[in-house]
Amino acid sequence: MCCAARIGMVQEMIFSDVKKIDYQARTKFTYKVTDFELYHWRSHASEVLTGLPWSDCCSGLTATVMDMITRTNAQEPLENCFRLLVSISGTRTPDHIVGCVKTTDNGYVICGDTTKFPPYTHTAMTHFGIFYNCLAEAGDDPVWRQGVPWK
Predict the structure, then answer these.
(1) What is the pLDDT of residues 27-56, one digit of tens each?
(2) Is 138 left (phi over 0), alpha (psi -120 to 50) or beta?
(3) Domains of the chain by range and CATH?
(4) Does the model's pTM come out above 0.85?
(5) Cys-Cys link to 15, which of 24, 106, 120, 151 (CB 3.0-4.6 A)?
(6) Beta-sheet pairing, 81-87 with 96-103
(7) Helices 15-26 and 58-72 sit at what angle, rounded to 10 degrees?
(8) Burial (CB count <10 Å: 0-12, 13-18, 19+), residue 23
(9) CA distance 69 to 3
(10) Which residues contact 46 (CB under 8 A, 6 or more apart)?
């Protein structure tokens, strides 16, 4: 059964669904090196869904994957979707962003990561988690918490 058909029958994501959506977002994606912009995110889900090529930095891939996850499964609670500001350089200053989804079969899964493909469980994340935001609290004045959502 295809991902979209099966998703319509369940409340929440499973790991294989996250992998498929992440892969779809990357199909025509070109990584664009830019200075890291801490609070700039732009989804390219419309381009992906119409088959157009697109390019952006890590925040664009993360925003696109998370947007597609919530578009694909309207049942997916935003409480299970997160943005993580992390450090790949080992400092306590954010220099990268990844997506995270709490799945029913593998717990927290990291996705939309330009440094690693395919998506992976949170136990395999080598980045240092600094802040996270639950998409249910994104809005105009997003709530950011220290650390990672699984602790």
Answers:
(1) 999 998 877 666 667 899 999 999 999 999
(2) alpha
(3) 3-146 (3.10.620.30)
(4) yes
(5) 106
(6) antiparallel
(7) 130
(8) middle
(9) 11
(10) none
